Amino acid sequence: MVGKERIYLSPPHLSGWEERFVRDAFASNWVAPLGPQVDAFEREVADYVGAKGGVSTNTGTAAIHMALRLAGTAAQDTVFCSALTFVASASPILYLGAAPVFIDSEPATWNMSKDALQRAFRDAEQDGRMPKAVIVVNLYGQSADLGPISEICRRYKVPLIEDAAESLGATYRGKASGTIGQFGIYSFNGNKLITTSGGGMLVSNDQQALEKAKFWATQARDPARHYQHSELGYNYRLSNLLAAVGRGQLQVIEERIAARRLVFERYHQALHDIEGIEFMPEAPFGRATRWLTALWLHPGRCAVTAGQLVEALEAENIEARPVWKPLHLQPLFQGCRYYPHSAGESVSERLFQNGICLPSGSNLSEAAQERVIDCVRRSLQNGPGAQGAMFEYGKGGR
Ligand SMILES: *Cc1c(COP(=O)(O)O)cnc(C)c1O
Predict the structure, then answer these.
(1) For a surface tag, which of 68, 227, 368, 379 has the fewest beta carbons within 10 Å of its beta carbon?
(2) CB-CB contact of 297 with 309 (8 Å)
(3) Distance from the CA of 192 to the center of ligand 1, in angstroms?
(4) Measured on CA atoms in the order 332, 337, 340, 344, is the torsion positive or negative?
(5) Which residue out of 66, 89, 95 has the highest number of ligand 1 atoms within 8 Å of its CB and is therefore the one to mutate?
(6) Is residue 10 part of a domain?
(7) Nearest atom (ligand 1) to Cα of 85
């Protein structure tokens, strides 16, 4: 490990424009929360994705919370949510005292299985207990197959919330990821395609709903000169300084997407011929950003497990990650209902057991990527080293 520079999974990548916008914010003394940079950032993101408007928040998680509340979620309700995702997709369901029902992935997109969703709705109808919303996640920069998914939601009159935290810039049949459901959310956390260091946004074509979200996110202050509150609010707004950083990042978003796609192309070129490796497919319905290059290893056909490969990369000071541990397997969500893709197939569990995400930053140099590729090839040819044999993340725990 000594002497080898660390290669990160998805580090921030500055454009040089950020300082200009931040300087404007300082020059105008607008360093306090809200202000012209926030307004401009909201307008620019909404314009980029083709939504009527946006409300920026201090995290993507907060934006999901606001979307769920707009959908009317309250204690004792249920919400359908993709199983294969980061915890933040579902924790706001718990904030509201509601219960998640997890929906598996399908093999073609790694995203929500419409078959599993349909079964969940049929059961909900039978039980007379419709969910308040469906949260669909667009994983690793690729949209879910939202045509059939939104059709199902429309049929049951349940609002669709797109967790597009990982898919800003992706498209689905010509539309921007995040703009197909009633509400979409983006994250500008440090590891995302573009970052404000921390931040998020709720987008929608429903201006009235956005106004309401802005109200809740700003402590729900009634329009009175004295401090008066009739509803429960939150302190969720984005700082004007961070919005300035986001505007600088947004200037180069198309370049960032092109760079991530190129990183994927290089991995694919160099590794696709190895027996037992399968990359996350790019569905024909749109453009994936390849925010992260993800792949899975056929168990039994590869010399190492995905867990051993992560360890082998770590030994070379390279940060790789398992695919998200499905939420229905998380201790936090023990006892929650789960609908697998089919009776005999749980896609999210297979992807978790065997999947891996490789360093995918838009600033990953070719030389650094060569180091990753070399290590992956060597591991898959030679099998696990001493440290690899000790660790398998699929095992142990729930
Ligand atoms: C990053 C992420 C979030 C949360 O965004 P934050 O801005 O970190 O709160 C939510 N969902 C998914 C799928 C994410 O990857």
Answers:
(1) 227
(2) yes
(3) 9
(4) positive
(5) 89
(6) no
(7) 13
Say yes or no: 217 and 311 in one domain. no
- Around ligand 1, the residues with Cβ closer than 6 Å are 59-61, 85-86, 88-89, 137, 163, 165-166, 187, 189, 200
pLDDT score for 388:
45
Dihedral angle sign, alpha carbons of residues 66, 67, 70, 73: negative
The pLDDT of residue 395 is 47
Residue 385's pLDDT is what?
67
Dist. CA 28 → ligand 1 center (Å): 31
The predicted pLDDT at position 398 comes to 35
The pLDDT value given to residue 336: 97
Report the alpha-carbon distance of residue 351 to residue 336 in Å, rounded.
Answer: 20
Among 9, 321, 329, CA closest to 189: 9
Tokens 């569990």: give the residue: 349
Q: What is the pLDDT of residue 245?
A: 97
Atom 14, ligand 1: which residue's CA is nearest? 165
Measured in angstroms, how far is the CA atom of residue 10 from the centroid of ligand 1? 14
Q: Nearest C-alpha to atom 6 of ligand 1 is from which residue?
A: 60
Question: Is the whole-model pTM more than 0.90?
Answer: yes
**126 and 267 belong to one structural domain:** no
Specify the 3-state DSSP secondary structure of 309.
Answer: helix
**14-40 per-position pLDDT tens digit:** 999 999 999 998 888 877 767 899 999
Number of structural domains, the chain? 2
Distance CA 148, CA 154 (A): 10
In a domain, 397, yes or no: no
Q: Which segments in the chain show pLDDT lower than 50? A: 1, 386-391, 394-398
Instruction: Quickly tell me which residue has 């969703």 as its tokens.
Output: 117
Q: What is the CATH number of the domain that holds 223?
A: 3.40.640.10
Inside any domain, residue 207: yes
Please report how the helices 146-156 and 114-127 are oriented relative to each other, as an axis angle in degrees rounded to 10: 10
Residue 187 lies in a domain: yes
Q: Which of 56, 82, 112, 166 to mutate to test the pocket of ligand 1 (most atoms within 8 A of CB)?
A: 166
CA of residue 373 to ligand 1 center, whole Å: 28
What distance in angstroms lies between residue 165's CA and the mean position of ligand 1's atoms? 5
Q: Among 250, 285, 320, where does a domain finish?
A: 250
Residue nearest to ligand 1 atom 7, measured at CA: 60
**Closest approach atom of ligand 1 to CA 88:** 10
pLDDT of residue 2: 53
